[in-house]
Amino acid sequence: MSKRKSIGPTYASYPARNLGLWLGDKTFKVVASAVCLLLWWGVYWVLLGVVNFNKNTFMEGAKQTTVNELFKDDLSLLVLGISSVLVCVLVFRSRIGDRQTRKKKR
After folding, report:
1. CA distance 27 to 69
2. What is the reported pLDDT for 51?
3. Residue 77's Cα: distance from chain center in Å?
4. Is-contact 22 30, C-beta < 8 A?
5. Residue whose C-alpha is closest to residue 31's, from 92, 83, 79
């Protein structure tokens, strides 16, 4: 009985399939970075609340401020912007969502 021949690796990874996998990976990473940024902004807001509480409670003669005033400060926005870029870079450099097969290192 004859064996069935396979088409081979040439047709297993055609350019449209590779492009589809690449676009799927990048789309997933964009969505994942958006979710991570929302989570990070929430954590940052809570940390600013803790800093504001400690400043208002323990510092004698300090000007009473709200978390919103601290958040709108230039230095706070700079820190938030730099940390947001770092979160996006970490998400895109990670292997999260990669569906392409990788060769195992031996």
Report:
1. 35
2. 93
3. 18
4. no
5. 92
- pLDDT tens per residue, range 12-46: 667 788 888 889 888 999 999 999 999 999 999 99
Q: What is the DSSP string of 4-39?
A: PPP--TTTTS-HHHHHHHHHHHHHHHHHHHHHHHHH
Rounded-to-integer distance, Cα 86 and Cα 83, Å: 5
User: Whole domain around residue 55: which residue ranges?
Assistant: 35-93
Domain count, the chain: 1
100 pLDDT band, cuts 50/70/90, is: low
Query: d(Cα 28, Cα 34) in Å, to the nearest integer?
Result: 10
Flag whether 45 is in a domain: yes
The sign of the CA dihedral 60, 41, 43, 79 is negative
pTM, entire model: 0.73
